[in-house]
Every structure is written in structure tokens, then in C-alpha cells.
Amino acid sequence: MRSDGSQSAPLGLKIAAACGLLFLHLPILLIFVYAFTTEEKSFVWPPPGLTTQWFAVTWNRPDVWQALSLSVRVAAISTAIALILGTLCSAAVSRTRFFGRETISLLVILPIALPGIITGIALRSAFSLADIPFSFWTIVLGHATFCVVVVYNNAVARFRRTSGSMIEASMDLGADGFQTFRHVVLPNIATALLAGGMLAFALSFDEVIVTTFTAGQQQTLPIWMLEELIRPRQRPVTNVVAMVVMLVTLLPILAAYYLTRDGDQIAGSGK
Predict the structure, then answer these.
(1) Rounded mean pLDDT of the chain?
(2) In sequence order, what are the beta bridge partners of 50?
């Protein structure tokens, strides 16, 4: 037992935890290693040599930039839609009482609970029935279905921990609805919205299954990577792109974690 009264973990548990972490993260380390290999056509272990030439090759590949641009644009617009709809839904569910409130809450979070292939097939069928051609906007709509859920879950939890007396006091002091939202509500939910937006962006950026059913002939970056693995051409380029995808998605997830880890300290929560 330690001096602070806590017990140290058994040796077996420490070993099991270390093995679990290696099982999860060792493949990721291999991706980084193969981004520097001199072998072009196959993955050989150990790599016959190390080089940085594939970073220049990746930089000069126009298909990589096209796929990256599409992924960033889709993720940005899907996140913007999710922030608006997720905030409105969470405010309605958490701040008001009406018939069917819990049912609506369930319907909002249902898309992320369903397997992605079910959502993809449903969206593809709906687009086909409505004679909507596959385009940039069909991808955005597909991604927005689960991005809304991420923002909604973050915002509704923060709304429920925010004291309603603060809003009532603001209205009693003469503030209108917009002023109350700007000066009272928004400061309390801002970090939750930012964290939800970052997570939504990360999910949209590396989404594959729903995109496959809604993109038509377009290629987002994850779809491009999948095609490159099926029909390989300069294999290390795929690993270089994978490194970029991991960094792009890891940074907003870490930022969201640090923004929300102290989220229980909400102004007015004790009043």
C-alpha cells in the first residue's frame, strides 16, 4: 500500500495492461515504419532500408490532394450542420418538457447506434427513391447523420448540468432571448460544443462505410486509401497518408478530451 492509502496494481494486471496497449498500438507503429521503407511493392519485415523520398512523392501526387480536399470540405460542412442541429435538439430536449421527448432523444442518437452499413444502405435507398444523384452533398448528408449525435450528446449533458436559475435571472434582469443565449448559455456550453465539433470532424474525416454508399464515383481520403490497398501503387505513399490521417484525427480528439475533462465545474450548478 502506498503512503496516500491507495493500493498498487498486481504485477499480473500490469503485464496484462502492457500487453493490451502493445496489441492496440503496435500496428500503428508499423504504419509509421513502413512510411520510410525503401521497398515499393510489398511490406517486408524488417524494411530493407529507410528513406524519406515517399513524403515528396506523396506531396506531388494530385490524387492525394483531391481526396484530402474533399474529406476536409465534407468534414467541415458536416460538422457545421451538426453543431446547429445538435445544439437545437439538445436545448429542446434538456430545457423543455413535452410529449414524446424521450422518443425524440432516442431517434436522434439512433444513427450512431446502428451499424454503418445499415445507415449507408438506408441513405442510398432514400437517394435512389428521390432521384437524387450522388454528389458532394450526399456525402455531407450521410456524415451529418452521425455527426449530429456526437454534438447532441456533448451539448445535452452540459445543458442538464447548467442551472436553469441563471437563465431565469437573466430574463428577470431584462435580457431578451438572444442576449441570454449569448452571455449566459453559450459561455456554459461553449467547450462542450467545441469538443463535440472536434469529435464530429474527426469521425467524418476518416469515415468509410457510409461514404461508400453515398459518394458515387468520388473518393474521400479513406476511400482513396482503401483503393490503394486493393490495387497497390507505391505502397509507402499509403502509409504516409495514413500518418497524416492519424495526426489530423488525433489532435482534435486530444483537444476535445482536455476541454471536457473539467466539464463538471459548471457555473451556477450548485445554485
Answers:
(1) 78
(2) 37
Contacts of 205 by beta carbon, 8 Å cutoff, 6+ apart: 71, 72, 75, 221, 245, 248, 249
What cell does 250 get?
Answer: 488525433
pLDDT value at position 223? 87
Planar angle of CA 68, 219, 111, nearest 5 degrees: 95
Q: Mean pLDDT highest for which of 23-27, 160-164, 170-174? A: 23-27
Question: 134 falls in which pLDDT band (50, 70, 90)?
Answer: confident
Using CB atoms within 10 Å of the CB of residue 140, give its burial: 0 to 12 exposed, 13 to 18 middle, 19+ buried. Answer: buried
Q: What angle do CA 6, 10, 11 make, to 5 degrees?
A: 135
Q: What is the pTM of this model?
A: 0.76
Reading the block at residue 8, the C-alpha cell is 498498487
User: Taking every pair of C-alpha atoms in the chain, what is the biggest distance, in angstroms?
Assistant: 73
Task: Give the type of residue at 271.
Answer: K
* 47-70 as b/e: b if 16+ CB within 10 A: eeeeeeebbeebeebeebeebbeb
Residue-wise pLDDT tens digits, 65-94? 888 889 889 999 999 999 998 888 887 887
Distance CA 86, CA 142 (A): 15
